[in-house]
């Protein structure tokens, strides 16, 4: 289920869950595999997003039932290594400040999501100056997300 949200641009759980008629917490449980979604939720994935139920339930086949009618995902841009590193340092710094230690893969996932958020926020993702000017916005956004994640029971973001 996490892969579906990722396909649609890594919207935050609140907005994505709302579009499917489920709470942020429920979506988090489903994505972590801690709970099984009911038939209504599975139906919304199929009818609203075009996700193949076979893929959703078993992982077999294609993610989308009709690949010719797949709703578009995010647009892709070439990763700027210097900016990606800077975002990575910011993510690591903020996690350290909150006393959160993540495994390397999870930290990389957080870095990638933050980088994508920065790119999506920019009017011109190829403008390095604009991207750099958005770093304070990204820092504020990440701080809010970390605070919310620490407050959410079962979020897995434990102190070191």
Automatic annotation (TrEMBL):
Q: Which domain of life is it from?
A: Bacteria
Where the record annotates domain HTH cro/C1-type, the positions are 14-56
Q: What InterPro entries is this protein classified in?
A: Cro/C1-type_HTH, Lambda_DNA-bd_dom_sf
Entry's CDD domains?
HTH_XRE
Which SUPFAM superfamilies does the entry mention? lambda repressor-like DNA-binding domains
- Protein name, please? Helix-turn-helix protein
Single Gene Ontology MF annotation: DNA binding
